[in-house]
Amino acid sequence: MPFSDNLIAFTFAATLLTLTPGLDTALILRTATVEGKRQALRAALGINAGCFLWGAAVAFGLGALIAVSELAFDILKYCGAAYLAWLGLNMLLRPRTSLSSVEGAQKKVPNWFFKGLMGNVLNPKIGIFYVSFLPQFIPQGQPLIAWTFGLVSIHVVIGFLWSIILIAATQPLAKVLRNEKVITWMDRATGLIFVLFAARLAFSKRSV
Q: Is there a domain that residue 208 lies in?
């Protein structure tokens, strides 16, 4: 398959993956509506940084360990599930009613870049996906590291553009979405989504 065909095929597949609603989408939407576009952009950057870390793991062989080792997969899986459950339960049990305490709260809890990063890094399914998916689009005989980071970069660009679209879509409704009741509902709804994703991750199995 010509190089251009590889890139086109990967771009199409990565776009479909990005547009499929998941944890990242929930995180971006909730952060944009409740805390504003600046924090949402930080979350998006954290998610993308996580993709690059997984890309590095794949390029240097660490991702393969997650794919073949049940123990390594389980350790990362349960750490990720615990982290998501912690985030979700905090939103469910202690939802906010206003944004007046956002700046003070930011000094006490990790920022949204960190949350986006950790949510991605502690999800072994991302590693499994990269290990099983990326090699299919790397031409035989081509440098693995360069191509891996190149493909990850394409995925990151698509993901960041989609994040910008999601963030922009929330801005016209910002006043309504920052209503006291709406903020509480958004926190609880996102918290529930995070807890459900945590449960799904905890009970997931290696697919390769």
A: no
Calpha distance 70→88 (Å, rounded) = 26
Range of the domain at 107: 3-202
174 is a domain residue: yes
66 with 73: CB under 8 angstroms?
A: yes
The token duo for 171 is 């801005």
144 is a domain residue:
yes
Q: Does any domain span residue 207?
A: no
DSSP structure string for 44-55: HHHHHHHHHHHH
Tens-digit pLDDT profile for the chain (208 aa)? 566 777 888 888 788 777 766 778 888 888 887 778 888 999 999 999 999 998 888 888 765 666 667 787 788 778 878 877 887 888 788 876 655 444 444 444 458 899 889 888 877 667 766 776 777 777 777 787 888 899 999 999 999 999 999 898 887 766 666 677 777 787 788 788 778 878 877 886 765 4
Residue 77 is encoded by which pair of tokens? 């899986």
Number of domains in the chain: 1
- Please say whether the beta carbons of 187 and 87 come within 8 A: no
Integer distance in angstroms from the first to the last C-alpha of the chain?
Answer: 24
Helices and strands, number each (H, E), in the chain: 11, 0
